[in-house]
Amino acid sequence: MRIVAWITILLLAAPAGALAWDGHDRLTRLALADVAWLDSLPPVLVTTRTDRVSEIRQDYAFPYKGERQGDQLAARLILERYAMEPDDGPDQELRVSWQQRFMGGYTGMSSRGYFHMYYPSWTVHFPLPATAMGAAPDRAALWCEAAKAALARGDTYWGLRYLACAMHYVEDLGQPYHATQTSTRFVVPTSPIAGTTKVTSNYHLAYEAWIARRVAEDALELGQALRGIDLEKFDDPADAVRRVARKAHEQSGQLFGACIEFFGDRFRQPVDVPATETDLARMEPAGPRDRMIAATRPALALTARAIRGFLEPLRPAIQFSVLEGARRPRP
Ligand SMILES: [Zn+2]
Question: Which stretch of DSSP H or E encloses residue 291?
Answer without folding.
Answer: helix 286-311
